[in-house]
Design goal:
homodimer; 322 residues; alpha+beta; Jelly Rolls; 2 domains; 8-stranded antiparallel sheet; globular; tRNA binding (chains A, B); Cupin_8 (chains A, B)
C-alpha cells in the first residue's frame, strides 16, 4: 500500500518493471489461448487505418466473434505463429491488412476480467494486477476500495489507439508483446484539439501542423513509455495517452496482450455512477459545462461591444469561484 | 436625426460644440437659481475627499436640502459669488472644505428633468438637449423613442466622480462651469480593477501602480474631453468615464451645472425594465454571470488537476457559444 501510494502520489506516469502477473506471461501463447476452451463472444474492432480519425467518418467496424477466432486472426498477423498456415483460410472481415483490437468491456456494468474471463484471471494470480484470488498475494498496486473495472486488451501488431484521456486512474499491465504509450499532461489539453475526450491530432509522429498549429507547443512535451512483457504503466486520470502496439518485427512481432485496471481517483460520489468505461467526466464538470454553455448563449444575444464586454466579465466571474 | 446617427454610429465619444440649450447658459447664475422659487427637496452628496474610493468605507454622506440651500452652498465655494458674504453663515454639514454634488435622480422611476424641475427644463428650450417643449425645435441629438431619463448635475468646483460605466448611451451637456471627462473604451475593463460598475483605481492622475499594476496598460489609452458651457459629450454605453468639475480658479472657478440624458442602446426588452439610473447590466448579462458563478462553484469542488482541467474546458465551452 505504501508503494502504491508512492506510485500515484506524484500524479505523473510511472513505469513499473518486474510486475508480478502470475503465470500469464509464460502461458499466454496463441496455442494456449485458442485451445483454452474460452467460449466468450467478443466484440472486436476491425480497423483498417491504424486508428480512428475523430471528426471524420470512422474507418473501423465492429464484429462479433468468438475469443478463439479473435486469437486466430490476431496471431495470423504474427511472424512465426504456429497457426499461420491454418489462418490463411480465414477470409478478412473487411479487407486484407485489417487489424483486430479487443477491449473487453461490458455494456451494462463496468468490465470485470474475473467474471468475463475467469480462467485468464486465474492465470494472472498470484500477482499484483488483479485483486483477490488466492489470498497469498492480496496486494495490488492500486487502492482496492477504489476499484472500478478491469479490461483485457488484445491487439494485432501495429494497432494504434488515438490520443484520449480517461477520468479514472489506470494501470496498464503488458502481458505479451510490446506497446509504446505516448502521454501528455492534462495541461496540454488546449493544444491537442480535443473533441469529447479525444485529440483530433491523428498523426502524432508527423503531425499536420497546418491543421493543428497549436500542437507544436506540446509536441516535445510528450512522455514516452515503451512497455514489454511484465511491465506496467501507471496512467493518471486526465493524462492524454496514445497507445501503439508494436508493429510486426522479428524481435517483438507478436500480438499485444495487456490487462488494465481502472480505479477511482475522486471520492466515489464525485464520479459518474453510470460510468462503464472509466472515461466519463465527473457530473460536476458536466453540469458546469452546461451552465457555461447557457451563460455563453445568453451573452451571445447581445450586440457588440456588449457581447465582448460581458463575456470577459462572465468568464472572470467563473474564474473567481475557483 | 441623420446628425444624431452620425454622432453615435462610430461607437466612440464625440464632443459637440455650440449645442443649442435655450437661455439656460445665460440665465443660470447663482442669483437666478436661488431666487427661482424652486421648492424641490434635493438629496445632495456631501463629499470630503473628492471622490469615493470603492472598497473602502465611503467618505461621503447624503444630506437632504432644498434646491436653494444647495445653490447657496455650492456657489459659496465659488470665487466672486454675490452670496459669498451671506453664505458664511451656513455651517458645514460635515466639515470645512466639503464639496456638494447633486444628481437629480428619483427612486421610483427614472429621473425626468421636465417633471422634477419644470422651470429649468423650460430654460433649456428651445434646444437640442431635452425633448418636447415648444415644438419649434423638436429635434434632439439622440433617438427620441429610446429616451430613458434626464438628470440635473450640480457640483462644487473640484468635485470628482469616480471612474465607472453606465449601460445606456449618454449625452452630457455642460450649461455652466467646466468639466474634464476622462474616458476609456469598454475593452479597458480588464485593466481597471472594476468592482460592480466602478473602477477601484481612485487616483487616475497619479495612479498607485503598486496596487493597480495592470492600470499601466491602459493609462495612456485614456480619452480626455474638456467641456465648457454650451458643449456636450456623447458617452457611449460601457465606456468608463471619470468626471472632474474644474477646481476653483479665476477663469473657470464656478460651480458646474450640467444636464445629461440617457437613452437605450439595446432593444427595450434587452435592458433591465427596473433600471432607474441607466447603469444596470442587461438581464441577459446578469443571468450569464449567475450561471457562470454556479459553473465555477461546481468545478471548484474538484481537486487538482481536475479543477484546472475542467475550468479550461468549461470556459472554452462558454466561449464557443459567442
Amino acid at each position: 500500500e505504501e508503494f502504491a501510494e508512492l506510485v500515484t502520489s506524484r500524479g505523473e506516469p510511472v513505469i513499473l518493471t518486474g510486475m508480478p502477473m502470475g503465470k500469464a506471461s509464460a502461458l499466454w501463447t496463441p496455442d494456449y489461448l485458442t485451445s483454452s476452451g474460452i467460449e466468450t463472444d467478443t466484440t472486436v474492432v476491425v480497423d483498417l487505418a491504424g486508428h480512428r480519425k475523430p471528426g471524420t467518418r470512422r474507418n473501423f467496424t465492429f464484429r462479433k466473434m468468438t475469443f478463439g477466432e479473435l486469437i486466430q486472426r490476431v496471431s495470423s498477423n504474427c511472424a512465426g505463429s504456429a497457426e499461420e498456415a491454418n489462418n490463411k483460410s480465414l477470409s478478412p472481415v473487411v479487407s486484407f491488412g485489417e487489424k483486430y483490437y479487443l477491449r473487453s468491456v461490458a455494456h451494462k456494468a463496468p468490465a470485470d476480467l474475473s467474471c468475463m474471463f475467469p480462467s485468464l484471471a486465474a492465470d494472472l494470480r498470484p500477482g499484483m494486477v488483479l485483486p483477490g484470488g488466492t489470498g497469498e498475494c492480496s496486494h495490488t498496486l492500486w487502492p482496492r476500495d477504489a476499484y472500478h473495472s478491469s479490461v483485457l486488451r488484445i491487439a494485432s501488431p501495429g494497432t494504434a489507439l488515438w490520443t484520449h484521456y480517461d477520468t479514472h486512474d489506470n494501470l496498464l499491465a503488458q502481458v505479451r508483446g510490446r506497446k509504446t504509450v505516448t502521454l501528455w499532461a492534462p495541461d496540454a489539453e488546449p493544444f491537442l484539439y480535443v473533441e469529447g475526450s479525444s485529440s483530433r491530432v491523428d498523426d502524432i509522429v508527423v503531425p499536420d501542423l497546418t491543421r493543428f498549429p497549436l500542437f507544436s507547443e506540446v509536441s516535445d512535451k510528450r512522455w514516452v513509455a515503451s512497455l514489454g512483457p511484465g511491465e506496467a504503466l501507471y496512467i493518471p486520470a486526465l493524462w492524454f495517452h496514445h497507445v501503439l502496439s508494436h508493429p510486426k518485427c522479428p524481435e517483438f512481432g507478436d500480438m499485444s496482450i495487456a490487462v488494465n485496471v481502472f480505479w477511482r481517483c475522486l471520492p466515489e460520489q464525485e464520479h459518474d455512477a453510470g460510468d462503464l468505461y472509466g472515461n466519463k467526466d465527473p457530473p460536476a464538470a458536466r453540469q458546469a459545462s452546461e451552465l457555461a454553455a447557457r451563460a455563453g448563449a445568453a451573452i451571445s444575444q447581445l450586440p457588440e461591444p456588449h457581447k465582448s464586454f460581458y463575456a470577459r466579465r462572465t468568464i472572470k466571474r467563473l474564474a473567481e469561484q475557483l
